[in-house]
Queue: 4 jobs
Job 1
Amino acid sequence: MDNSQREVIISLKNVTKVLGSVRVINNVSFDIYKGDIFVIMGCSGSGKSTLLRLMTGILKPDEGNIFIHGRDIAKISGKELDEIRRNFGMLFQYSALLDSLDVEENVALPLREHTKLDDHIIKIIVKLKLSLVGLKGFERYYPSEISGGMKKRVGLARAIALDPEIVFYDEPTSGLDPVVAGITDKLIMDLSRKLLITSVVVTHDMQSVFRIADRVVMIHKGEVIQVGAPEEIRNSSNPYIQQFINGRPEGPIDFFKEDTSILEDLLK
Amino acid sequence: MIESVGRFIIATLEAVGGVLGLFVDTLYWIFVGPFRNKPPRLRPIFYQMVFAGVRSVLIVFFVAIFTGMVLAMQTAYQLEKMGAVIYVASLVAVSLCRELSPVLTALVVAGRVGSAISAELGSMKVTEQIEALETMAINPVRFLVVPRFIALFFMLPALTIVGDISGMLGGFFIGTTSLHLSPDLYIHTNFKYLALKDIYTGLTKAFVFAVIIALIACFEGLNTKGGAEGVGRATTRSVVISFVLIILADCLLTAIFYFSNV
């Protein structure tokens, strides 16, 4: 598909973020097109989750701009940001459901806060969203009473409660068994294809990446290694990418930060 | 040395600024929010009122009744020497209403409710629940702080009144049993020297203490960092800082009331 003809929904231009004394994100630029499943992959600590926090406006970039629908989210007021956020859904790595509310109230929360819908209708919508993630009948359970995989699905139901345009997923399959992970991937694809939701997925689950992605960006130490379609990434000659997708312990991605061996350290 | 003093001062000023900022935010969501189509939600307010207020009645009752009894015995010990045991009644009533009931109730509530608020908000913070609210465009101050603030603001003075009454009951019990005063005379003396201003200066203190407890507890909770240990630290800090500020504010308010002859 020719990307130049497509509508850009999120655009990062030379984004840099410094946390403490570390450049967590360094001069990152890419575009996300409407309706795509865009996957951000990279090792733990590569800055993936920070990128997600930048895109949802929880963190502000130190340099560069982040445009959502052409509006720079670092330069708008809190009220305008909240308006944009109403078109967001976000699935957190550990679900981040409110412990004090049961499953139904959790999914209903964005509806109760942002719409004037009748309670009766809200309950119907909640049922609908819960059946979409295969959890009908679990309305009265509290987050502490259900499994991690179920919590993630409730989190997903909550993320899509307001029929958002964009859904952000922070490691949607981590900590799930392979079958549930597969189901979660299928859910993400269904939502994207059937409801035309733009999805931004942060993950390091390679199986999942090649199952769902329309486009992929590989991040390493806060920098973009490559952006492209999954086949381009798979066939890339870049040593970082080859090491990452094949999970090889040797290669340019070094596990040890310093070259000095433990023995040298001890003998100092 | 100078460096560490400087760092301490900067950290303290930052915290003070943070608490004041939270106060302004809270007032904004209580008074301006409703005109922006965002009224405070009633259900959580009632829920917090039950938790902070109704469930604290028993402990406030016990703390105050025993304080009243101790006060009666200790003052009788002094007043006996002057043959003025009957004034135990008014002394107990006045010192309870002006001073002891507001302060002790506030300390009990800071320990029971303030710590619970810090722990709850703190664990919500470390499990990304606060962040989740923000990404859902739900303001955490409006959603979490406002109900707790309003609940404490009304329940702490109410509990103080419970404390006033229970303390006087304690004094009455000692006065009429071990001090052999007649119940009629005790009640008469109790109210004869108790002016309305004694009660409302005490309640004014309670309102101020409620603001302190709610703001410190919420601030510490929302600024929790680093897992379970961080939650524990936030809870401890919340209680310790509230205690110190309550006593400090009590001293200031008493001075103001005393020197302005209220």
Job 2
Amino acid sequence: MDSNKISRRQFLGSAAVAAGFTVVPRYVLGGPRNVPPSEKLNIACIGVGGMGASDSQQVSTENIVALCDVDSKNAAETFKKFPNARKYSDFRQMLEKEKNIDAVTVSTPDNTHAVAAMMAIKMGKHVYCQKPLAHDVFEVRKLTEAAREHKVMTQMGIQLHATEALKLLVEIIKSGMIGNVQRVDIWSNKNWGGGTRPIETPLVPDWLDWDLWLGPAPQRPYHPTYQPGNWRRWWDFGTGTLGDMGCHIIDPAYWALDLSYPVSVEAHPGKFNNETYPEATIVRWEFPARGNLPPVVVTWYDGENMPPRPEELEQDRKLPDQGGLYYGEKGTILAPHMDGPRLIPESKMKGFKPPRQLFPRDVDHYQEWVRACKGGAKPLANFDYSGPLTETILLGNVAARAGEKLSWDGPNCKVTNVPEANKYLQRQYRKGWTL
Amino acid sequence: MGSAAAAAFTIVPRYVLGGPGNTPPSEKLNIAGIGIAGRGAGVLEGVQSQNIVALCDVDWKHAADTFNRYPAAKKYRDFRKMLEEEGKNIDAVTVATPDHVHAVASMMAIKMGKHVYCEKPLTHSVYEARKVAEAAREHKVATQMGNQGQASEETRLMCEYIWDGAIGPVREVHVWTDRPSQGLFNVYWPQGVDRPKDEPPVPETLDWDLWLGPAPYRPYHPCYLPFAWRGWWDFGTGALGDIGCHSIDPIFRALKLGHPTSVEASCTLVNKETYPVASTVHYQFPARGDMPPVKLTWYDGGLRPPRPEELEEGQEFGEGGILFVGDKGKMLGHRLIPASKMKDYGRPPQKIPRSPGHFEEWIEACKGGKPAGSNFDHAGLLAQAVLLGNVALRVELREKLTRMKLNWDGPNMKITNLPEANQLLQREYRKGWTL
């Protein structure tokens, strides 16, 4: 490995190293303005409808000084909620004009995450960015590197990462209660796939700046099928079910098992086309041994396809619609999405004692980031953690398009066995857009 | 079912062949064809060395080419009328209708003492498969299901490698097809779609009522025929029924399988009209003789098992295939992997006689020869297992099957842990139709 490349171990390897990162030395805070905990941050929000409405609300403990959205109808409620914030439709204009911003939130469709977050990072702004961190693997890698270089505080929008349920799951596995884990099955019943491009070309409504909505994506005529809320299923804008739910449900496996780059990825998608994602996919990643931890295989099922029922699971007990199964040498954990982990069968929970806490429970996911921006501990889902997580997830989409099992050279961000698959790591931006 | 019983079924004693009028090998059989276009034309071609004396199809336009090919054969629309009128003149029938008519047509012929060649899957429902197989045994007719791969060298090699211990005891098998998808971007026939609302007129050349046969009445629509009926619950049996009888057949033979003990399934959104876009079905089979219990997993619609590590880079994994996982190695189709292992191993000793050909097997059996390879004692068991997978996919059981797998009492043809599921083993016939 090149000495100037950051090794996975350095950033994510053992729990000790990871823990080391949660106590960030003061000097890294030199880049952005130093805000003491007693003061409020000045925050600008990019994309404030839908999930963006919630994100701006969650950080409204601070000063919301500017809001940006390409859809004034979808943004109306948030605009109204913060009457003193200046309103913009182009985030580039907002970032140039607003001189007092300390931090930004990015809650646009996936297609625009990277360009917005990157511009802010390069200006020394702290960034909260919704999951998935970006649309392509290449963008994620660049964002991760830039955030490190510009010493800004980052957090990816996987709010469950800060919850008791997830921390407990990670602590159980790290405690060795179920022994070494070499197999994880993860599934989501969501289906962000299927569909063909509409033929009709209705007029763009006057509340929407369609060109800005497209951002770096190739030009195509406006249609209400994309916006709001349905862009996830389109290759040009979203990242499918995997990009949507994978960041949430694969996150605990990544965290608990100290995963970083996989060595291989293969996808077996149901039918799809050049416009929309598959309606169902099985994706399988192989991760190498990490320190004393053995190699592990993570398998993802979506579109209502499920992994086989574990033999330990009692008859008449429902597998949740979304979740994970962690198969250890000494036991199996069922971790429903958004709910607490259970050893299975349930009889194993008798006399269950939670293991020693490894992570603080004091603040939520958003306030982790706010506090970090004021010199506090680094947020748990910072880009050094969430970058490799997102890259891994997006590789599943790359493998679906490549149609081959791919060998992955993580440190060099390269598919080594199927060179033509590398073209799916990075898309071409529309003229006028750069990272 | 134990291996002794399963084996007994594949070696049918001579006496069962006494029933119908014995045609000596020197003479030709008189054959009537039911369903003679599409696959039916291919089936007739397979037996064209015999006398084709009568032909029946509900769509005379679709059947025109076949009618022209056998100008001496009498033409019918209704197979019941044909069998009644031609009964004395025919020795055997071929059945190549859509799946939902297989059982009623085969059963009528069997009860008249006619030998039967029936396309796969043997029937539409589990119950029908059981009944048709029983009747064929009782009436001592020669039978063959249309899974022509059973006569191949490849099927024999799969058996002989496994019986020779080339990969050790097999505890896991994966079998897949991309159907109903065709590659990544096309479909053989649509699944996951809803019933059309328009009611175009029935073409003059088609007897729609006869096409429906025992299925519930519904208005004609060109979305059902030809060929696309495979995707509809009322008519076809989905990807599993279409391809399962082909690709699970060699597994049944090599591993001497009989009834499974359980089945579970998951799939993309399923409706009451069509089979899902993609599904996985897990079967458990008990120990048989000295063979250990085995798990068989079916994947369709593009879903696949993980690519085995033994398969060399660059070697195709396949749009469809079979992967045997043994204690001492893996076999992809009839090839030990990696190829070097196959080279070292050489050929296993021949234990199964080679076939004169799939159709010839049946013709010989009809003339007093030994039972054909896919006679209904074998094919009935196979079809029941395949069709049981479709029961586990039914929308009516979807919620229940998130809580359990279906436990199967094969000898008594009963789902033991979910009584209401038993009604899905059999369908109700439209008035005027009986088995």
Job 3
Amino acid sequence: MLEKAIYGGRRYWVWIFFLLGLISVGFLAYLYQFKNGLGVTGMSRDVSWGLYIGQFTFLVGVAASGVMVVLPYYLHDYKKFGRLTILGEFLAIAAVIMCMLFIFVDLGQPLRVLNVILHPTLNSVMFYDMLVLSGYLFLNVLIGWTVLGAERKEVAPPKWVKPLIILSIAWAPSIHTVTAFLYAGIPGRHFWLTAILAARFLASAFAGGPALLIILALIVRKYTKFDPGKEAIQSLGKIVTYCMYVNVFFLGLELFTAFYSQIPGHMHSFVYLYTGLEGHSKLVPIMWLSSILAVVALVLLIFPKIRKNESLLALASISVFISLWIDKGFGLVVGGFVPNPFERITEYWPTIPEALITLAVWAIGFLVLTVLYKIAVSIKEEVVFDKYGEKQIRTETE
Amino acid sequence: MSINRREFLKMAGISTILGIGGVSAVQGVRNRVEASQVSQNPEALTAKRWAMVVDMSKFKSEQDYQKCINACHLSHNVPHITDNPKHEVKWIWTETYEHAFPGNEDEYRAERFQHMPFLMLCNHCENPPCVRVCPTQATFKRKSDGIVMMDMHRCIGCRFCMAGCPYGARSFNYKNPRPYIDESKENLEFPTRMKGVVEKCTFCYERLAKGLKPACVEASNGALIFGDLEDPNSAVRKVLSERFTIRRKPELGTGPSVYYII
């Protein structure tokens, strides 16, 4: 099926080469980082994780969110998601690949990465994170490829794939739960030491991921002959709405516990992020941008009339995505390190090489996504759908 | 001997499986044998759980602290990075009371305690979170004497341990540390590090093996007391039974092995 990716129009190739350009620039930046060490980033002794680990955390959520289209389709027989499942699964593949790359570029000694497998450490959450992420990647590649391949041949997918799909549905929340456990089990980092962290992660993932999927589905519809379905997109909109409300509710719970209990350690990071602490306020503008975008999105999403307008739904989805990207891909990680264990403040801001490397990893993700979507769409364009969005399988009698 | 494709694939498959199986069997045996020296130096200092008491009353001047810090940093080739404080590497350093014991501040406490510099170092926790989070066992608690060790050759530089340590005891080599080591003072008996690995105090395991006390203890003129926490007759236990001591963040359940007499 890969051959479908090498036939494309001018716009397709311009986009591919644009991504390759970003990747090349980021690769040079990575060589610079590889030679000089992580000192070329904005990270420090006090803020020892930054943009890379933030992006990793955010993208695990995007990967997990594929389940929000797979689950209704396979477990509730919600046929309208039939055309979307492959887009969700392929988005998950691209996201997991980005996650792995972000971990890799964050390592001080990347050539020793296989030590994680050579010396498996059962008490380290990172070991389990590696297991669940590679397992999830494997499942999605296998399922996506098999189902799409069957579709191309216009036959029903093989029976063995169904149990794997059920497994992948159970697997998806696990990848984000384990990722939350990277943070939530660390003593002495009050901002992360909260039982609700995994739940918060899942809520924000199930808002942010489907929001991205809405945007992608609209793009696919605009530029190809394949329509993921108006109602399917509307259903995704509802999922984004509920999950975004739950996410903001969870954040409210955190704020209540911190500020009603008045325990300084629990308040400090929030104060630092939203108003600045002891004159240090580098993150305040972006955290407020995130909050404002969240409010805009919530207002747009809550009214069905607004939501039904696809341009406004797109606007709301973009707001949700950017809001959560800032909150989880940046604020969550940096906020946990400020103030440091001595209650001193060291601020963090990414450097240019760091930003270029980050951009390149995203470009690699989008390259993978573009190629996979191109294959999926080329096949889907040939398949006939009925009014429910269910693909029509040619039977013997025809 | 002729061989068709099917047979070739079969043989390749079987040999791969045997190969992987063999490697894992050897690994299994290897992991059971703990790395050990040919024979232990009979003069080596040993303990069940090493601990330190910092007697603050004996630190009178800035120099008293600096002597300990220099002794440690010189004997371990700790790079002296001054051009960017974000990349600082330190094994032992000072921190004022309010920052060493956050949460115990009291604005009416006597001025001399408020800003009194305390010596900070790895606490060699009984229950170390850094060891719990490390994905490669590059940092591990030595079974024989409780020292939290660091294998800088295994460390992948993920910095999970730095997030895990509630005492800020760990430093990461954000750049090549070697240009920041004074060559004329380099200790050729202790390895220098490369960029991209984490390092910290190891209670001078290399000196203990030779029968010497840690470098900072030796330089402290008795202000640092070092001994076995599980031996009721050790110097450390004697001080702990007589004087009032505090530890940093004991409420976290880490079981720090560094005590402070104020």
Job 4
Amino acid sequence: MIADCKILNRAALTQRLVAKLRDEAVVAGIGNTNFDLYAAGHRPQNFYMLGSMGLAVPIALGVAMAQPQRGVIALEGDGSILMSLGCLSTVAMVKPRNLTIIIMDNGIYQITGKQPTSTQSTADIVAISRASGIASSFWIRDEAHFDELIDRALGDGGPTLLAAKIDDQPAVTQTVRDPALIRNRFMKGLGTGRGGALDA
Amino acid sequence: MGWAESCLDTLKENDVRLVTYVPDNVLTPLIKCANADNYFISVCTTREDEAIGMVAGAWMAGLRGCVMMQTSGFGTLPNALASLLVPYGIPAILIVSERGTLGEFNLGQTLVSRTMRPTLDSIAMTHHTLTDEKTMPFVVDRAIKQAVATQTPVALILSPLLTGGKVFKP
């Protein structure tokens, strides 16, 4: 239930997630979502989006299908997922066991001036996700509940969607905006780079 | 062998396994054959930009893919092309069945189709229009090889001259 949710902080929750990761790929949506992933300490398996709002989940789904043995996490905001709700039904249909979606829901388009999203008043992302066919969709009650849910998602398999109610704090830093570099580093992190000696 | 089988053979020869699509009448033989062939991993998506995202993620993780759509579906893509595929250098293969020309009966299709090539040109995305079965394998093969080698996306536009298009039946 949304009403039971403690308001968390995105940066702190992202750090909590990153501390648990091994070689999982993380695809983070535009703006604060990927800024906080970057701020939590760059990992070679991180992909930062600099545009294409709403495509974090589809990109993560593509990674998950290409590398079924690797855990894959999509980090997305409420505004972004509202833009592309159809992708949740695609995830449910494809059923990638290695995909976990985490929605940071602050009920606002934080980066553009805090305009309210529909989750502030009416929409329930977890209910939408369940109705799209992702049975393992949960609101995160607090930090301990997050630990329990993410351990289960990374261990037992998904697809899983976890949503957190978060505060309205902006990110503390910004990701380096170099798409070619981001892609090359990500591919190296996934073992698909072709840099050869250039990657040494 | 029809144009659809020939096209899929060329995709196979180039290790393009992931086939994402938003359904289209003209593309039906292509989608049907891809769905029936275990080599391909076919996924019907809800929107074309979603398919672009999937193919981008899959390619970065080592699986080549294509996106099939009709012209009006292409019309939803400029942001995904200009802020994902092109700047990140991702060789997605777009296969677009061309509506809006050579006997089009829907004015909406006609207008949206006029935005397609100018959009592609404005972001310097390579595109080829396929008009006959004889040259198609060569064009598709070389287009994929160039996309992968130079890490740039490419659009293959299937003209009604190749597919027969969709005709008005009163």
